[in-house]
From TrEMBL:
Residues 547-748 form the Metallo-beta-lactamase domain. The chain crosses the membrane at residues 39-57, 69-89, 264-283, 295-315, 335-353, 360-378, 398-418, 425-447, 485-503, 510-530. Keywords: Cell membrane, Membrane, Transmembrane, Transmembrane helix. It is a multi-pass membrane protein. It is found in: Cell membrane. Its main location: membrane. It comes from Amycolatopsis roodepoortensis. This is Competence protein ComEC. The lineage of its organism: Bacteria, Bacillati, Actinomycetota, Actinomycetes, Pseudonocardiales.
Length: 801
């Protein structure tokens, strides 16, 4: 290739050296199956038949010219037959499965099923007295027998179980179990015929396959070994090594997604390459022959695939790795692309549902980008004087970003603009972390001290990855909102094509460079030197933390603020305080101990000095009180109790404790949610923008108590009680008479917050209403014209599972 050629040139010459003959066959199987899953089984049959006809017609001509494509056309014909026959018939069987009709009726069913994948946790943020964590799991299974009412349903289809985490988390692939519940129709392009919402624990459990039991024992051993690491690193290492994210912090998971690094926790070709490459490298040092080395690596590959589990990306990587090792044993080189094509075709024929799996698509496209684009672009950079190692380190994540962006954009409705940089920074530590982790997994059960040492060796790498992801997620404009769905994906693909074509044109390159330079000169200084957020002289900010509360109150000192409540989970409140430039928190007030008010406490301490944590008289729920007490004790932070009439002062900020006026005499175990809400600490803050009434989640009886006791409630700004629930008395709003009202509420919540009648009553008393679910972070400021609300305008979306 000419070193001076552009990196975007992808003409015929640039593909020389790659064996493309299996590509048409693989694309026929993949796209033909995907079309059938989306539109009907007959489309798959037509696509397969068309491929057969095309292969025969082209094969006759190729034989006359002794073309090297004859073998490829033979593969196309075979895949066409398989696509039109077995694959199309499997899709048709799923479309006409009797259980699908029962699901459409919402029937109750008792089914005997066989688990096909490890249970996937569905995490939820904390709310009320429910702590954050995994409450549900999703389990893929195939139906053995099913009974609805008195009728036995004729079905052998796939089903998804939506089950309680307790009792269902430990199931393993290959295990039989009986489940009862209500059916619902499945969604999306897949072979799943129904979704079963399970009631109760599993029954009639069958034995686990011995290899799955052994693999789970090794995974559990790795999790136990990782307990010697800090909490976030302990959850990340099993994800890096075997894709086990069961103990991963939701905050770390979100940051890896926003920074474009989530693929590191999905076992795929990279993990397979590291494991097999390490084995081959060791055997090469020992001067072992290629065939023996390939056999040893194949054994390691098989064990790793079982250890990681039968996820689509794992199976794709495993099949591709096996074909590559076979090529090594036979002495063939340059077999990456045929191996990928073989893996795609084989897996889609064996399991047609993979054709519509996003993880499978991302894995295949990323591998194709690394094989086809990265080497050419690296060669171009080397020709321009860039050292080979740096060129490869830059082009590998860039190629992966380019080919996967359309799928990610359509799937997630967003694009990470920092993913290339974060993956370049992450790349050097992924391999050693994976190698140390795999060795710890294998050695740990037999030699615990050595396993612990190996796990400790992963801590620097895991810490570095968390640091890169955290800073990448916080970078201005790290995530760009994008239309989701098919149109969003096509728009992203079209934009990339236009960009790549433009790079080939000299004048277009100059224009792009000028536009990029102008953007850097205009937007970067604006965001860094004169950022739009936070507004100057803010007095209070209602942080967008989802379905929960967190309000920052500025003091007269730069970077110093009091915080009232911390939201439902670590991360969002930390990000809000970082945007505000707050690095000193003299006091954190927890209005009450419900999960959506205390869940983010631990993240406030990170990188900040905290003077004390204050609570009211309530100690319920017990687990929450224990969590707060343990967290403050561990960090050596004083834990105080506020009392009515107490006053706290800082420069340009004062806090008066108004409530709770009535504390229940019930024991901790007897207190329900309403009692806990009514025990919220009520504060009146004096700020330059006016008085702010902070009400926690008080409901009708506590509001009545405050009015009956004659508390001074009038305030210019009201933090609306209980996320704007319907339990807000009009008389209470009249007593406060706010000019501005802050409703801290999560987008897409299922609790009916905020209630329309409450919003109407706020408007009736003359309040301007701001909601974090539609306005994002909202600041209260005092300017020359008086009190004003400034909205950041980037609300947090619904909680992620």
């Amino acid at each position: 290739m000419n070193p001076s050629a552009d990196p975007s040139e992808v003409d015929t010459a640039s593909w020389r050296g790659q064996d493309l003959r299996l590509i048409p066959a693989a694309m026929t199987a993949w796209l033909g199956t995907l079309s059938g899953l989306l539109g009907g089984w007959w489309i798959t049959m037509l696509c397969g038949a068309a491929a057969v006809v095309l292969a025969i017609a082209a094969g006759v001509r190729a034989r006359r010219t002794a073309s090297r494509w004859v073998a490829g056309l033979g593969a196309l014909a075979v895949l066409g037959v398989l696509t039109a026959g077995p694959v199309a018939l499997r899709i048709r069987a799923a479309e006409h499965d009797d259980l699908r009709a029962a699901a459409a009726r919402g029937s109750d069913v008792t089914a005997r099923v066989v688990v096909t994948e490890r249970p996937r946790p569905v995490r939820g943020a904390g709310y009320a007295d429910r702590r954050a964590g995994t409450r549900l799991v999703v389990i893929a299974a195939t139906v053995d027998t099913a009974v609805t009412g008195e009728r036995v349903v004729d079905s052998a289809g796939r089903i998804l179980l939506l089950a309680p985490a307790e009792g269902w988390t430990g199931l393993l692939p290959g295990q039989q179990v009986t489940a009862s519940g209500r059916l619902a129709p499945s969604k999306g392009a897949e072979l799943t015929v129904a979704v079963l919402s399970v009631r109760g624990p599993p029954s009639a459990l069958g034995p686990e396959p011995w290899w799955q039991r052994a693999a789970e024992s090794l995974r559990a051993g790795l999790r136990e070994l990782c307990a010697v690491l800090p909490e976030e690193q302990a959850g990340l290492v099993p994800g890096l090594v075997v894709g086990d994210t069961s103990t991963l912090s939701p905050r770390v998971e979100r940051e890896f997604t926003d920074s474009g690094m989530s693929h590191l926790m999905a076992v795929s070709g990279g993990n397979v390459a590291i494991v097999c490459g390490s084995i081959l490298l060791l055997l090469r040092v020992l001067r072992v022959g290629p065939r023996t080395s390939a056999a040893a690596a194949a054994a390691g590959l098989a064990g790793f695939v079982v250890l990681a589990g039968p996820a689509p990306s794992v199976l794709r990587a495993g099949v591709m790795g096996a074909v590559g090792l076979l090529a090594l044993a036979l002495g063939r080189r340059g077999s990456a692309l045929p191996a990928l094509a073989f893996a795609v075709a084989g897996l889609v024929v064996a399991d047609p549902a993979m054709a519509a799996d996003f993880g499978f698509a991302l894995s295949v496209l990323a591998t194709a980008g690394l094989v086809l684009l990265a080497p050419r672009w690296a060669e171009w950079l080397v020709g321009r004087g860039v050292p080979a190692g740096y060129a490869e380190g830059l082009t590998i994540p860039l190629a992966a970003f380019v080919v996967t962006t359309p799928v990610i954009a359509g799937m997630a409705g967003s694009v990470s603009l920092v993913s290339v940089v974060t993956n370049v920074l992450a790349a050097p530590v992924v391999a050693p972390a994976t190698v140390f982790g795999v060795l710890a997994t294998v050695v740990g059960p037999w030699w615990p001290s050595a396993g612990t040492l190996l796990v400790r060796l992963t801590e620097p790498e895991a810490s570095w990855l968390i640091t890169v992801a955290r800073h990448g997620a916080r970078a201005p404009g790290a995530v760009l909102d994008w239309p989701d769905g098919w149109w969003g994906g096509l728009l992203a693909a079209g934009s990339l094509v236009v960009l790549l074509v433009a790079i080939r044109l000299r004048h277009a390159r100059i224009l792009l460079a000028v536009a990029l330079a102008a953007g850097l000169l205009v937007f970067v200084p604006v965001r860094v030197l004169a950022p739009a957020w936070p507004p100057a002289s803010w007095s209070a900010v209602a942080c967008d933390v989802g379905q929960g509360d967190a309000v920052a109150l500025a003091t007269g000192e730069q970077g110093r603020a009091v915080l009232v409540d911390t939201g439902p989970e670590p991360g969002p409140v930390d990000e809000c305080l970082s945007r505000l430039g707050v690095d000193r928190v003299p006091l954190i007030v927890l209005s009450h101990l419900h999960a959506d008010h205390i869940g983010g406490l631990e993240s406030v301490f990170e990188g900040r000095s905290v003077g004390a944590v204050a609570v009211g008289p309530g100690r319920a729920p017990a687990w929450a009180w224990q969590q707060v007490a343990d967290e403050t004790a561990r960090r050596g932070i004083p834990l105080l109790e506020l009392e009515i009439g107490q006053r706290l002062d800082w420069p340009r900020l004062s806090l008066d404790v108004l409530g709770p006026r009535y504390v229940t005499s019930r024991s901790v175990r007897e207190q329900d949610g309403t009692v806990i809400n009514n025990g919220s600490v009520v504060l009146r803050a004096g700020t330059p923008a006016g008085r702010v009434l902070l009400t926690g989640d008080i409901e009708l009886s506590a509001q009545t108590d405050l009015m009956a006791e004659g508390a001074e409630l009038r305030a210019e700004i009201l933090k609306v009680p209980h996320h704007g629930s319907r339990y807000t008395a009009p008389d209470f709003l009249n007593a406060v008479a706010p000019r501005a009202a802050l409703v801290s509420v999560g987008a897409g919540n299922t609790y009916g917050h905020p209630n329309k009648s409450t919003l109407d009553n706020l408007v009736a008393v003359g309040a301007s209403v701001a909601r974090t679910d539609t306005d994002g972070d909202t600041a209260v400021v005092a300017d020359a014209r008086g009190l004003a609300l400034v909205r950041r305008g980037e609300p947090r979306g619904p909680p992620r599972s």
